[in-house]
Amino acid sequence: FFSMRVFVILNIMTALHAAVAVSSLNGWPGVYQDLQWQAKLCCALTSNGKASEASVHNQNLSHITSLHQYQCYIQNSTNTTEDSGASHNVSESTCLDIRCRLEDKQANVTCYLKLQRATAPDGSQLIISLRPESEASPDETNIATQVQCAGEDEITCSFALHHNNSSVSLSVSGFLSGRPLLTPEMHMSTDLLRKPDAPLHLRYNVTTDGEVMIAWNESENNKHPLYYGLRYSPNTSLAHWEVLHVQHPWASLRELTSGVKYTVQVRCRSLHHLHYWSEWSDWSQPFYLTLDVSYIPSEVFTRPGEEVTVYGVFHNHSWTASKAVWMLNGLILPESQYQTINERVSAVTIRPKEAGLDTLMCCYPWGERYKCSIAYTKVYVEGFFNANITCQTEQHSRVDLMTCKWNKSAWAVIRFMYSNSKKCEEIPQEEGTVTDEEIMAAVEECPDGAGDYHECTLRNLRVFSCYKLWLVVEGGYNKVRSLPVFVLPVNYVKPSPPSDLEAVTLTNNTLSVSWKRPDLPVYGLQYELRYVPVHGSADLQWKMFGPLLNSWAVIRVQDPCIQYKVEVRCRRDNGWGYWSEWSKTHVSSVYITKAPEKGPDFWRIIEEAPASNTNVTLLFKPLPAEEAVSCVQGLVVVHQTSGGMVWSDDITPSSCYTFPWTEEVHSITVMSSNSLGSSAKNSNMTLVHRPKRQCVRWFHVTANASCVFFSWSLVCDQPLILSFVLEWLEVIGDSSQGWSSAGRVEWLRVTSTAREHQLCRPFYGTEEFTLYPVFVDGEGEPVRCTAVRSDPAAYMLLMIIAFLFVVLFVTLIISQNQLKKLMWKDVPNPNNCSWAKGIDFKK
Fold it and tell me: Which CATH superfamily is domain 696-793 in?
């Protein structure tokens, strides 16, 4: 008794052959549509009990003994089975729908099976299961590559593909209502379940006749003959496309307009050995084409010293080849190297001298400049070029880095290669030398890959290993390379900057600085320090100090009372490597031992304005040298008026301070201050609006070119005078020569007992001096006097007359001696005469 159940096994296995024989299509049923394989098996219960052994799968089933069994045939196949002509007595009929497709990024074949029946027997239940079937014979079945899936009405089964799987065999077997199920073995091609890969590397070439040829490469995954579709559009909106179909990987484009940017794309489809057309592939990446100037060839390979000829084709018909200008690496080539082929084609011949990548560009005169297209010819000159590779190592706690930089052609796409092995001294450094050990060593590439860059950072270094570094020009087939450099990373370390700076200026005119060395590198370091006053002028230069081997320094400075900005850097103590960056700027503190003892001496300038308040500007004298140890950090100006108001202003040590004078009497006291307190001995000044007493009888000033002499007399000695103040306007320039400019007000305090004073300084022309007597309760009436320097021309004339007089006197003396010699020249000497012998002429 057979229970009314259905048990179906779906067996999927890999066909190990890459190409299946096409002698018979009976094993390739089904329909390929929309990247999906479809087949429909219709099964009928035979009444004669005969079944073709060729259509029975898995003959080892011991219970296939019934005279009644289900025999299936493929209903939607393009071919017929061997039993399609046999007579069947159909008492029951059912169908199996099978669909298969690629999923999971085309890594798996997934099949769906669904059972369909026109009339269901009473009380029948369906069970569907899958089991593996052998491809040729049971002995050849590879169980490891088979998948079985079981179910009833619906089954889903997946099978993992491998890279060489191009076909899969599928079979269905089992029981329907307790009777065996006989189905033919089926095969499907996975190539027809996937799209072909899109074409790659679109490019173009031009003939000397101006014909544009677009070419491309096929994908390695496409195994069958391909048919191509090409489209191009001149519009940025891509609303209208021109379409071409070709059977080879190139196409000719005609009647393209110069200066227009075209977008070009290509796709393909394959013709399977079952005479099925695959789906169209996706469109390739857009290729942008703008025709201004094209080059033949677009790439040239040569050696130094060999001649190279390149042709430039003008697509702009308004340009003529006779006016072409050729540039090599941006420099204009001489016209003697040009050649005009026709109206649209110009040629140039060059002879490269050095290895590397040169760019050759054809331009057209455009006013005083040249109009050049983006396109150019790449001239690969085989050999070794100097890329000036330099490296810098940075050591950190977790990883060591080395950044290398180089020089290259502006248009060159390069790869930065490196390898590391034994000591640098043991590696041959001749050009092109490659040792057996280097061949075995792993040559690595910069993580950035090929590109237009000028530096690369290598990580996880072995700082005591020798690194060989070189550049390879992309597209040069490894024949255009830079000269290798050999680097020991430990010799090119750039340390981290020192930290934790401390600096203080001391009373002994020194700046004491200390810092903490970086943790890495661990070997000895040398240091360099620079410093500059905080409140100096903008153009004040840093002062350098070093090198130092200790992490501290004591520097002699001029002013111990000002703050300094200090920075430190370091490098390896043996001179290898690089200086670190400067440390963070540190501002020194000032070491103060006591408060100032005395306040500054000061004077005033009164600016009276009838319509507004009177302004008073105080002028301060620098503190004496003995006050430098107390380091004055500020001034305190204390005001007291006749109305009883008292207030103070804190100001920085400067040359002047201005305030309004509104009361009848205004007293000012100026104190010096620092962080420890203010001065006890201070200067005072009382300003009074009432008329001033007259106490100076006369005031005389005498001047020469270098000094001014003052003298004065008093009317009386009462009341007591505290001091005298001489005031004048410093004049810049020589007024006697017709040029001068007003300067600042200068002043000088003279003791109360003095009645004369001498001031030596450069003196020009006429200047006015004012003498102020200062009392305890205010100032006396000032006295003014104008000093006139004697005319220097008179002194010069006097000096000239004196000089001429001396010259005349010397000339007269010399002339008198010469006259004596001339007068006595012809008079004979009597001592030489014979008649005068024995005569004494003295008598």
Answer: Immunoglobulins (2.60.40.10)
